[in-house]
Amino acid sequence: MGILGIAFLGACITFWVTQNDYIYEPASTLQTTPERVGLKADTILISSGTGGGRGDLFSWWIAVESKTAPTLLYLHGNDNNIGYVREIEYARRMHELGYNVLMIDYRGYGKSTGGKPNEAKVYEDAESAWNYLLNQQHISASHIFIYGHSLGGAIAIELATRHPEAAGVIEESSFTSMPAVVTTMSHNLPTGILIHEKFDSLSKVAELKIPLLIIHGTWDKIVPYHMGQQLYDAAPQPKTIALIEGGTHEGSCIVGQVECRRIFSTFVSQNMH
């Protein structure tokens, strides 16, 4: 093997070992809080994991007065934390629609403890949040909608495959798999084969037994909207896709506020049971 071959192999090994530092980009400082935008939130800690990886998920429970209101389990993307203004804005919009909202930070994000995140741990954290809603808040599973943005969409689909009793799953700006995203971002170089954090939503979405709503912006430069279309095509009925013209990766429901309110309201009202 020549010098270039050795250098390439070394680069591949380095990327394999360090890729989690690029996939997960947590921030420890909270940019803002629900109270600063007029939301009343209870700060809670949800236990997650076992052994040396056990931690507490720093979370906000934002409730409405109605005892029969739908509840959104909100799963954010790969960066920052629930105190980021983008996440708070999502919660505010959902609360205005009359929904309870549970926002969680995965282990390693924000003020959550339990070490660094990985694929298995974020799935476990979503499951812990689900159990909190059932066992501590006593929310009926048929009133819970699992909502994930970007990486959170992949986590939401994984959780939804394990809970066919949920009311529905909503994913926004999400992808078919992590290797596919990496390949796209590297201009179709075969870098995806080096990814061990798979987040393979494309294979899982076919297993869904609950209604699915996909929202994707046509101007998304991080996860192209054709990935949302691929997920939709692979999913069983009932399913809905909303392509937001001009919507970006983080801003589809800012660009299309009226559309998103209508889409959410229709999906939730049709699937509460």
Structural commentary:
The chain is α/β, with parallel strands linked by helices and 273 residues long. 37% of the residues lie in helices and 19% in strands. It has 10 helices and 10 strands. It has helices at 3-18, 20-23, 85-96, 119-135, 151-162, 178-185, 201-204, 225-234, 252-255, 257-271, and strands spanning 25-26, 42-48, 55-62, 71-75, 79-80, 100-104, 144-149, 168-172, 212-217, 239-244. The strands form 2 sheets. An 8-stranded mixed sheet has the order 2-3-6-4-7-8-9-10, sandwiched between helices. Helix 4 (119-135) crosses helix 5 (151-162). The longest helix is centred in the middle third of the chain and has 17 residues, at 119-135. The N and C termini lie far apart (63 Å). Mean pLDDT is 91; it is low at 4-14.
Count all strands and give the number: 10
Q: Which class best fits the helix and strand makeup?
A: alpha/beta
Order of helices and strands: HHEEEEEHEHEHEHHEHEHH
| Main beta-sheet strand count, sense and barrel state | 8 strands, mixed
In the predicted model, the low-confidence regions spanning at least 5 consecutive residues are: 4-14
Give the distance, in angstroms, between the N- and C-terminal Cα atoms. Answer: 63 Å
Numbering strands along the chain, what is their spatial order in the largest sheet? 2-3-6-4-7-8-9-10
- Radius of gyration computed on alpha carbons: 18 Å
Number of helices: 10
The mean pLDDT is: 91
Shape assignment: globular
